[in-house]
């Protein structure tokens, strides 16, 4: 089993690509700057932490172990725009995504990513 921060490193890239792809599929005529502005809402630590809490009850025991390892991993940095708790849960989310991706559990991965995307999109729409 890899270091949880290694899973998070891969998970960050996988999640970012998923979000960027969704942005382009759903809004094919935006500029790259507008894609960036829309995608921020999905990838910022606060919302990744919210996503992690949202999906907790649908995770398997194996996935919960991975999440806990990611949450408890010792990171040397914390972004300026995030608090420690959100950052730890965001890391846990990215760790889960990276783990599922590297294990080739694509069906489960995309189920979770789509669940998170739908939840965050619905939340955004309620605020508008």
TrEMBL record:
Chief location category: cytoplasm
The keyword Hydrolase is assigned to this record: yes
Per UniProt, subcellular location reads as: Cytoplasm
Q: Where is the active site?
A: 12
Read off the Gene3D superfamilies from this record. Answer: Ribonuclease III domain
Which InterPro entries does UniProt cross-reference here?
A: Mini3_fam, RNase_III_dom, RNase_III_sf
Q: Where is the RNase III domain?
A: 7-104
Keyword list (alphabetical) reads: Cytoplasm, Endonuclease, Hydrolase, Magnesium, Nuclease, Ribosome biogenesis, RNA-binding, rRNA processing, rRNA-binding
Q: What is its EC number?
A: 3.1.26.-
- PANTHER family found in the cross-reference section: MINI-RIBONUCLEASE 3
* Record note on quaternary structure: Homodimer.
Q: Supply the name of the protein.
A: Mini-ribonuclease 3
